[in-house]
Fold this protein.
Amino acid sequence: MKNYRLDKGSKAHFSSLEELAKGFNVKIVPKQTKDKLKLAKQRVNFVKHCKHCGIVMTYLSDSNLVVCKNSKCKGEPHELKDREGNVIDVIFKPVFRMLDDEGTMIAANLFAEV
């Protein structure tokens, strides 16, 4: 156990668990499951399906976006109205979902190549 202790005179400050693990030379354990079928199911459940076409959405790596890449999916309809409330035109917005910080960390762990 002496290998995992700091010297008496040293002062160390760690701001994250990764820095602490590096400071004590502890191997970092990956958070991704080893079972390939379970991993595929977790990925599908995380990104969900498009509300309009039903196809599984795609996570864009190194970002915080999950988008629908189906070429036939028009997207979410949005009505443009004038001041009286009459519908002028209907436009289609692309279907996407923005992830928060926690969701981005989960997606990075799920979609990392191990």
Notes: The first strand starts at residue 58 and ends at 59.
